[in-house]
Structure formats: C-alpha cells, structure tokens
Amino acid sequence: MKYKDYYATLGVAVDADLQQIKKAYRQLARQNHPDVSKTPGGEARFKEAAEAYATLKDPAKRAAYDELGRRPSGEEFTAPPQWRHDHAAQAAGFENFENAELADLLAALGRRHAGGATRGPLPRDGRDYETTTRISLEDAHRGTTVHLDLNDGEGIRTLEVTVPAGVTQGQKLRLRGKGGPGLHGGADGDIYLHIALAPHAVFRPDGHDLHFDLALAPWEAALGKDVEVPTLEGSVMLTVPAGTQSGRKLRLRERGLADGRGARGHLYATVRIDVPATLSGPERDLFEQLSQVSVFNPRSAASKESNHATAPI
C-alpha cells in the first residue's frame, strides 16, 4: 500500500525540524495560493502542501504518520510490513485497511499512542490563510476598515477587518481565529493580512517618515523664502533658509505618518532648484547683470566647501 510522502510534498528531509517545515510550507503556500497563483495545478499543490503541513507540524500526528512508513533514500514512502495485513488494520479499528483514509489511520494511531483507548478522532487545527490588502497613505495614517473576500473551500465569505492607524508598507497583521475552522476540538486557523501602500501622487513613505520633492526658483533658494508645502492634513508654511542648495532636505517635525503609539514620523522636503525654460526681456537683463557682478563659481573649490557646509540635514 502506497501513502502520500508528506516530506517530499514540502521538499524537506524526514528529520527536518519544525522551523524548516514551517518555512517550506509558507513558501509553497505563497507560490500556489489560489488568490495569487494562476499556474495550472497551483490550487492542487496548495492543498497538498496544507495537508502535509497539518500533519507534520503536530508532534503527535507526525509520530503517528512516521509509524505508518519509512522512506529510505531514493525510495517511495510505503507502509511498513507490520501494517500491510488486515489484522493490524483491525487492531487500529478498521475492517478493511486497504480502503481506510490516511487521516483516519493517523487518528487511530494517535489514539493508540495515547494509551490504547479509542477516544475519538484527534483534534485538527484549521487552515491558516495569507492575503494582501492595498490601502492609501491617508488610511494608513488614520486607520481604516477593509473587506476581505476569502475562498475557504466552502464558498466565498466576506470579513470586515479593522486596520489600525500606524501600519507601514509590508507589515503583517494576524487575525486570530479567522481562518479555517478546526475539527474535533482543534483551534481555528488564522489569517495573515499583508499591508501594501498604494503609490501616492506627492509623498514617498519610508517607515513612518514621508518624503516629497520641493521645487524652488534660483532666487528663492539664494535669498530664502517662506513657501507653502503639502502635508497629509493640508498645506503649511515652510521657511527655506537663504543659501539652500539643491538636494538639501528640510524637515517638518512630526508631519509624517502616525505610528499607532501616539507619535508620528517626520516629513522631509528634498529641494530641487528649477530654472525658467524661457526668459522675458527684463528677466534676461537681470540675469546678465547678475552674471557681471557675481563672483560665485559653482565649480570652484571654495564654492564646493561652501556647499558642503550646507549639506542636507
């Protein structure tokens, strides 16, 4: 009698520890989940991996499974000789061993390991699920509610999930007990919700900090100026110091994203100096006058030292 080789399904050795088994399962689940993978056979591979993981992650179930068979290197996973006869199957509680389901055999063996008395099927934890939701920067800052449509094998169910303020790109939220239902007293599975932040028209997130580009005219950067800049809550005034160089970062303290603990990140304006594409007559005259009276040379060593003194903060 042949059995499914759960170790081969997950791609791990028969002596793999729990961390190796978990890592292998999660990788296969991410690759083959029906909500992610569109490759032929992906859903079947996902189910096979989940079935293998459900057994091998539990020490009692794994011990019972290992008793069913051993897999010498290079050979298929087969039942040991002592389990190939009907009398052994009857001892486990089955009249016809050949027609018994593997899950039932494992349950029977598990009961026998527990003391020989038949106490009913072993508890089986529900399946865990992973999914991704995309939210805006504003929703990450304030918190929001999202609706998840999950296909758990029994149809589509919709969950309303509260995403707290302060989440960041790539963060993973664990929804305990919201996954597949447990069997025979087993715990319900969990849902792992990955956060993806939608691209923003102005801001670039970096953790809880935000960055944006601030365009300045040459005379604004040279003379200094109070300019209006955007934030998540609306526009505020920012003082640009005289002599500001292109590439300098000007910080607005605690104008970034909320961190969920009562504080906020910062907002950074990266200066970009723009010059007019075309000049009016008076503008050209003024630039000509400036070129005649100015001793500034951006390519000289002295100018580079001056620029370095006002490096980005």
Q: How many strands appear in the DSSP assignment?
A: 11
State the separation between the terminal residues, measured CA to CA. 71 Å
Strand order across the biggest sheet? 6-7-11-10
Q: In CATH, what is the homologous superfamily of the largest domain?
A: DnaJ domain
- Spans where pLDDT lies below 50 across 5 or more residues: 70-75, 78-101, 112-116, 308-313
Indicate the structural class: alpha+beta
- Using the coordinates above, name the CATH class of the largest domain: Mainly Alpha
Question: What best-fitting shape do the alpha-carbon axes yield?
Answer: elongated
Q: Beta-strand level of the residues, as a percent range?
A: 15-25%
Question: Architecture of the largest domain, according to CATH?
Answer: Orthogonal Bundle
Q: How many helical elements?
A: 10
How many strands, which pairing sense, and closed or not: the largest β-sheet? Answer: 4 strands, mixed
Average per-residue pLDDT, rounded, comes to: 81
Domain count, please report it: 3
Q: Which topology of the largest domain does CATH recognise?
A: Helix Hairpins
Helix percent band: 25-40%
Radius of gyration: 32 Å
Q: What pattern of helices and strands is seen along the backbone?
A: HHHHHHEHEEEEEEHEEEEHH
Please, could you describe this protein's structure?
By secondary structure, this protein is of the alpha+beta class. The chain folds into three domains: 6-113, DnaJ domain (Helix Hairpins, Orthogonal Bundle); 129-197, Urease metallochaperone UreE, N-terminal domain (HSP40/DNAj peptide-binding domain, Sandwich); 204-309, Sandwich (HSP40/DNAj peptide-binding domain). Helix content is 31%, strand content 21%. It contains ten helices and eleven strands. It has helices spanning 6-10, 18-32, 42-56, 59-68, 86-92, 102-113, 137-142, 218-223, 281-293, 301-309, and strands spanning 129-135, 144-151, 156-163, 172-175, 191-197, 204-206, 209-216, 225-229, 236-240, 249-252, 267-273. The chain has a four-stranded mixed sheet with strand order 6-7-11-10. Strands 1-5-4 form a three-stranded mixed sheet. Helix 2 packs antiparallel against helix 3 and helix 4 packs across helix 6. It is elongated, with a radius of gyration of 32 Å. The model is unreliable at 70-75, 78-101, 112-116 and 308-313 (pLDDT under 50).
